[in-house]
Design a protein that fits this description.
By secondary structure, this protein is of the alpha+beta class. The chain has one domain: Maf protein (Alpha-Beta Complex), CATH 3.90.950. The protein is built from 6 helices and 9 strands; from the N terminus they run E-E-H-E-H-E-E-H-E-E-H-E-H-H-E. Strands 2, 3, 4, 5, 6, 7 and 8 form a 7-stranded mixed beta sheet that branches. A two-stranded antiparallel ribbon has the order 1-9. Helix 3 packs across helix 4.
Length: about 200
Amino acid sequence: MKHAPFILASASPRRLDLLKQIGCIPAHVIPADIDETPLKGELPRALALRLAQEKAMALPPLEDHFIIAADTVVAVGRRILPKAETNEDVAYCLDLMSGRSHTVFSGIAVRTPGGDLKSRVVSTKVKFKPLSKSEKAEYIASGEGIGKAGGYAIQGIADSYVTSINGSYSNIVGLSLYDIRAMLSGVGFFIKQES
C-alpha cells in the first residue's frame, strides 16, 4: 500500500525499523530537539504523551508531509525510570525491575499536513524474573541498556528475563505497530491504489 510522504521526528533506529515492517518509509528522518525533563509531579503516562506531542510540533511543517513522533517512558509504579546514560543508570533500573512488573508507556503523535495533531498513549505491562547479581553484571557488561528508556532493550538479552507481557510487544521495542497503523489510517495517510 502506498502512503503519503512523512518525516520521522525520532533518532531511534528501532522506530525506523518498526515503521519499515509495515511498509512506511520516511522521506526524511529529523530528530526533534526538545527538553525531555519531566515536569514537577508529572506522571509517566502524561510525560510520554507530552513529549511525543512536543516532538511532532517542534519541526517546521513541510508541504504535504505528515510528521510522526513518539516517546517511550518506562515506569515502576509512578516512578519514572531514566533513559540510561551510564552503567550505574542501568544497574539502578535493573534493581527496581527485578522480580516485579513495570509499565512501558509510549506516546505517539501524528501531525497532518494541515496542522492537525492526533495523539495517544499505549501502555504495556512487563514482568521481570528476580535477577541475580551475576545476571545484572552480565547485562550491564553487554552495553545493551545504554541509551534505552528503563535501561534495557527487549530485543536482546533482556528478553530472557521477561516472565510475562500484557499488551503490545512492539510498543516495548519503541512503537506499537497496531496503534500507529490505526492512527495513520484514520488521518488519510495511506493512499488507496486504483484497481
